[in-house]
Design a protein that fits this description.
The structure holds two protein chains of two kinds. By secondary structure, chain A is α/β, with parallel strands linked by helices. Chain A is built from ten helices and twelve strands. Chain B has one domain: Rossmann fold. An eight-stranded mixed β-sheet of chain B has the order 2-1-3-4-14-13-12-9. In chain B, β1, α1 and β2 form a beta-alpha-beta unit. The longest helix of chain B has 13 residues. Chains A and B meet through loops of A and α1, β8, β10 and α7 of B.
Chain lengths: 251, 203
C-alpha cells in the first residue's frame, strides 16, 4: 500500500525561507537550496515550495532556486504561490516542479483548475485551501488567510475535484501556528466529501500530532513548516516513530 | 551516451538532471541517427496513451525504436513503459509497440475496494519477484514513486517487480530481452531511483 507522506513546506520570499505564525510576523530562516538538501537527506517524501514574493525580481529568483533544487533533489516537488494562469503552471513545471498548487488564483478564476488538469493531468493540479470556521461553518479564505470569500469550503473542494484537482492541501487557519495538533474535525469533514489525496496542514507541534493524524484513514500526508525548520521535530525520527506505531512509512 | 526520446510529451527536467547527477551522459533527441548512435535509450512519457502514441507516430521514430530495441538496452518510464505493451484501453483501444506482451488497463476497474484513491499516487514498496541486473543496487521492499491511473496487466512472464495496491499487484518493473520498463518514476524516487538508473547505465 501507499506510504503516508511527511512533507516540509518552504515559504520563500526574496530567495529566503520564511515562516510566520498565524500568517503574520514573518521570520527569516534559511537558504532554500540548503534546506531542500537537508530535508532530502532526512527522508522527506515530498517538498512544497511556496513563493510568497510579490515582485517580478522575487519571482525570477524563486524560479532560479526551484531549478537549482530540482536539479539535485529527486523527490516530488510541489510549487505554489502566485499561480493564476496556465503560463504560471508552465513556468514552474519547466523549472522541475511536478505538481502545482493553486489557491487564490482559483478563487479569482475557477476555470484555471479545469484548464490546467486538461493540459497537464489531474495529478499535476493541487488545490490548496485556507479554511476557517465562521458561524459554525467551514469557510474558504483568500489572500493567505486574510479575506473571507463567503464560499463554503467543502462545496469549493467538491467543485475543484470535479474540475480536475488531483489532490487537496487543507490548511486550517484555526489551528495554524498554534501547534496543538491538526484540525482533525475539519480534515474528516473534507475526507467524507472528496476521494483524492488529502494533505493536512496547520497545527502540527509534536510527533504525537502526526500519529493521531494518521489514525484517520482518509488523510494521506502531513505538512508542516516551522517545527521542521527549527528541528523541533526531526523527520527521520518522526518517520521511525510513526512506523513503530504501525503507520506505513518510507524509511 | 543515453538517448532520451523526445516526442513532445512530459517534462524531462528531472530525468535529465538525475542522469547528470549520476555522471551519465545523456541527450534529449528526436533524431533517428542519434538514437542509432546511442548505447542505450530511455522512452519517457506522461499523459494519455492515445495522445502519446500519436505523437510518437508523428516523429516517425517507431521503426527505429523497434529496431534499436533488438540491439541495446531500452528503458520505458511510466507512460513510456505502458507504450511498450501490445495495447492500451485508456479512452478507447490503442495499439502499443508490442515489445512486451500484455495490455494496459484501468486500475480502478480492477480494485475491489472502491474507496481506494485513483490515481495510484505516492510512495509504494517494490516487491522483487525475479532478480535482474537492473536491481543490482536496489533491495526488495524499497519505496518508489508512482503516479498513474492505468497499469500493465496480463504480463506476468515479463514482470520483475510489483507493488501492492488494495488487492491488485500493480506491475512495477518489466523486462523482455533488451527492453525494460518501470511504471514508477525512478527520477522521482529519491536515492532508490537513482540507484536503479545507475544500474541501467551499466547494463
Amino acid at each position: 500500500m501507499l506510504a503516508k507522506r511527511i512533507i516540509p513546506c518552504l515559504d520563500v520570499k526574496d530567495g529566503r525561507v520564511v515562516k510566520g505564525t498565524n500568517f503574520e510576523g514573518l521570520r527569516d530562516m534559511a537558504d532554500p537550496v540548503e534546506m531542500a538538501r537537508f530535508y532530502n537527506e532526512s527522508g522527506a517524501d515530498e517538498l512544497v515550495f511556496y513563493d510568497i514574493t510579490a515582485s517580478a525580481e522575487g519571482r525570477n529568483l524563486f524560479t532560479d532556486i526551484l531549478r537549482r533544487v530540482a536539479s539535485e533533489i529527486f523527490i516530488p516537488l510541489t510549487v505554489g504561490g502566485g499561480i493564476r494562469t496556465l503560463e504560471d503552471f508552465d513556468r514552474v513545471l519547466k523549472c522541475g516542479a511536478d505538481k502545482v498548487c493553486v489557491n487564490s488564483g482559483a478563487i479569482a478564476d475557477p476555470s484555471i483548475i479545469g484548464a490546467a488538469a486538461k493540459k497537464y493531468g489531474d495529478q499535476c493540479v493541487v488545490l490548496s485551501m485556507d479554511v476557517k470556521r465562521v458561524d459554525g461553518r467551514f469557510r474558504l479564505f483568500a489572500k493567505g488567510g486574510r479575506e473571507d470569500t463567503g464560499i463554503d469550503a467543502m462545496e469549493w473542494a467538491v467543485r475543484g475535484v470535479g474540475d480536475g484537482a488531483g489532490e487537496i492541501v487543507l490548511n486550517s487557519i484555526d489551528t495554524d501556528g498554534v501547534k496543538q495538533g491538526f484540525d482533525l474535525e475539519m480534515l474528516d469533514a473534507l475526507a467524507q466529501r472528496v476521494n483524492v489525496p488529502i494533505i493536512a496542514s496547520g497545527g502540527a507541534g509534536k510527533m504525537e500530532d502526526f500519529a493521531e493524524l494518521f489514525t484517520h484513514p482518509g488523510i494521506d500526508a502531513g505538512l508542516a513548516a516551522s517545527i521542521f525548520h527549527t528541528k523541533q521535530v526531526d523527520i527521520k525520527e518522526l518517520k521511525r516513530y510513526l512506523r513503530a506505531r504501525g503507520v506505513e512509512m518510507r524509511l | 551516451m543515453i538517448a532520451i526520446v523526445d516526442y513532445g510529451v512530459g517534462n524531462l527536467f528531472s530525468l535529465v538532471s538525475s542522469l547528470k547527477a549520476l555522471g551519465l551522459a545523456a541527450e534529449v533527441t528526436g533524431d533517428a541517427v542519434r538514437l542509432q548512435a546511442a548505447d542505450r535509450i530511455i522512452l519517457p512519457g506522461v499523459g494519455a496513451f492515445g495522445d502519446a502514441r500519436k505523437k510518437l507516430d508523428d516523429t516517425g521514430l517507431v521503426p527505429v525504436l523497434l529496431e534499436e530495441a533488438e540491439r541495446k538496452p531500452l528503458l520505458g518510464i511510466c507512460l513510456g513503459m505502458q507504450l511498450l505493451f501490445d495495447r492500451s484501453f485508456e479512452y478507447g483501444e490503442h495499439p502499443g509497440l508490442g515489445l512486451v506482451p500484455g495490455q494496459v488497463a484501468d486500475l480502478r476497474q480492477d480494485l475491489t475496494d472502491r474507496a481506494l484513491k485513483v490515481p495510484h499516487m505516492g510512495w509504494n514498496s517494490l516487491r522483487i519477484l525475479r532478480d535482474d541486473p537492473l536491481f543490482r543496487y536496489v533491495e526488495d521492499g524499497e519505496y518508489v514513486y508512482y503516479v498513474h491511473s492505468y497499469y500493465a496487466r496480463d504480463c506476468r512472464p515479463s514482470t520483475l517487480a510489483v507493488s501492492r495496491y488494495g488487492d491488485v499487484d500493480v506491475t512495477g518493473v518489466v523486462r523482455r530481452g533488451n527492453v525494460w520498463g518501470t511504471q514508477f518514476h525512478p527520477e522521482k524516487s529519491g536515492d532508490t531511483g537513482l540507484r536503479l538508473l545507475k544500474a541501467f547505465g551499466e547494463l
